[in-house]
Amino acid sequence: MEKHSGVFEAFYDFENLYGGYLLARRNKRFKPEVLSYSAHLEDNLIDAQNHLVWQDLIVNGLHQFYEYFPKVRLIHALPFRFRVINCAAYRVLWPIYSRSMYEHSYGSIPGMGQVKAVDQLQKWLRLARNKPDKWYIGKMDVKKFFFRVPVDVQLRELGKPLDDIKMMWFLETMIRCDGRAFGLPLEVSDPFDVDMVPGIGMQVGSLISQMTANVVLTPVDHYIKRVLQAPYYIRYMDDMLVLAPSKQQVWDIIGDTDDYLQESFQLQLNNKTAVRPAEQGSEFIGKVVTADKIHLRKESSLRMKRHLDYVREAYRVGDVPLEYAMSVIQSYLGLLKHTSDDALRNKICEDYVLIRESAPD
Q1: Three-class SS state of 201
Q2: How many Cα atoms within 13 Å fall on the side-chain side of residue 23?
Q3: What is the DSSP letter of 356?
Q4: Which range, of 14-18, 164-168, 196-200, 351-355, averages the lowest pLDDT?
Q5: In sequence order, what DSSP letters do the residues of 101-158 get, joined into one string?
Q6: pLDDT given at position 340
Q7: Residue 25 to residue 5: CA distance in whole angstroms
Q8: What whole-number distance in Å separates Cα of residue 139 and Cα of residue 184?
Q9: What span, in angstroms and rounded, lies between the C-alpha atoms of 265 and 331?
Q10: Coil, strand or helix: which one is 11?
C-alpha cells in the first residue's frame, strides 16, 4: 500500500481551509452560527490554522441531541468552527482513502447514494433470476456499528495509507473529541439514559466519522469479495447484502464474515442476519427490493403519512411556514419517484392540502 506524507501541511494550507469553509457552509450559509463565522472569516481561518500548526486544538462545545428517523440515534453536532476544520481534512484525506474503496459501497460516498444502491441490487436480482441455479440472498448488519467500533481500530485503519504523524495527531484529536464516551453496551437497544462506554464508538453526525466508517469497513468489503468470492455483494454503510447460487454458500459467507469482524475489528453481526430465496427480494435501506419492483417498507410509508399529517396540521395553525411544508412534500415525492408506489404517491398528492387557519378578528 502506498504511504502518503506531507498530508498535514496540505491540510492546514489557508486555501484548503477556505475550501473546507465553503464545504461546511453548503446549504447552511444563512444560519446564525455560519453568518457569525463568515463575518470574520479571515481571522477565523487564521486562528484555525494556528491551532493546527501548533497542535493545540481542543475540541469542545458539542451539541447533543436525538434523531428519531429512521431510527433512534444519539447525535453529537460540532460547532461550525470545527466543522470547517473537519471539511478541510476531508478534502485532503478523501482522495487518499477513496482509492481503495469497494466499487459497490454506496453510503456517504460522493456520486453514490441510496438510489444507485437499490438500482444495482435490482439489476443483480434480475441477473440471478435468469441463471440456472436457485440463487439466495443474505442480509447482514453490523451490530451497533457506530457505537461499538473501537477507537484503536479506527486509528489503525485510518493510519494504514498515511506516513504522517501530525495528521494522525489530528485524527485522534477529532475521534477522541472532548474525551466523552461514545460507546453503547451490546445488550442496550437504544441510547436513552445509558452509561456510555469509553474507548469504543464514534461521534455520529461528523463528516470525519462518516469517512472513518467507510475506511474501517473497506477491508471487510475486500474480504467478502476477494477472499470469500461472493458473486454479488453490496454495502450501504453497515448494511450488507450478498447473492450466491446456493443457500449454503450464503451462510458460509455470513459465518466467515462474522468471524472476520470479531477477530479483526472486535465487531459482530446482529440477529437480523437472514437468508432467503433471491426471487423473494430483500429489505435494503428502507425499501423492499425485488427483480420487478421497489417498494417502501410498510413501516416507512406509515411513518411518512404520519409526518405529512403532522406538517399539514402545523401549517394550518401557523406553526410552520409554507416553504417548510412544501419542502417536506417535495422531499417525499422525490423519494417515491424511485419506487413502484404509484398508489401511495397519488394518495399523498390528493390528501396533502394546505389550508391556513384564519386569525380571529
Answers
A1: coil
A2: 18
A3: P
A4: 351-355
A5: --TTB-TT-TT--HHHHHHHHHHHHHHHHTSSSPPEEEEEEBTTHHHHSBHHHHHHHH
A6: 78
A7: 29
A8: 23
A9: 37
A10: helix
CA gap 320, 315 in Å, rounded:
5
Cβ(286)–Cβ(303) below 8 Å: no
Instruction: Give the residue carrying C-alpha cell 427490493.
Output: 289
Measure Cα distances from 169 to 8, 53, 76, 323 in Å: 10, 11, 21, 44
Q: What is the rounded CA–CA span in Å between residue 70 and residue 161? A: 34
For 33-45, the pLDDT digits (tens) are: 999 999 999 999 9
* Residues in Cβ contact with 270 at an 8 Å cutoff, skipping those fewer than 6 apart: 141, 142, 143, 144
Residue 317's H or E segment, with its range, is: none
Asked whether the predicted pLDDT for residue 48 surpasses 90, the reply is: yes
- For the record, the C-alpha cell of 176 comes out as 477522541
Asked whether the CA dihedral 277, 283, 285, 291 is positive or negative, the reply is positive
Kindly give the pairing relationship between strand 287-289 and strand 294-296.
antiparallel
| DSSP state at residue 277 | E
Cis peptide, bond prior to residue 70, ω within 30 of zero: yes
Amino acid identity of 208?
A: I
DSSP characters over 160-179: TTB--HHHHHHHHHHHHTTS
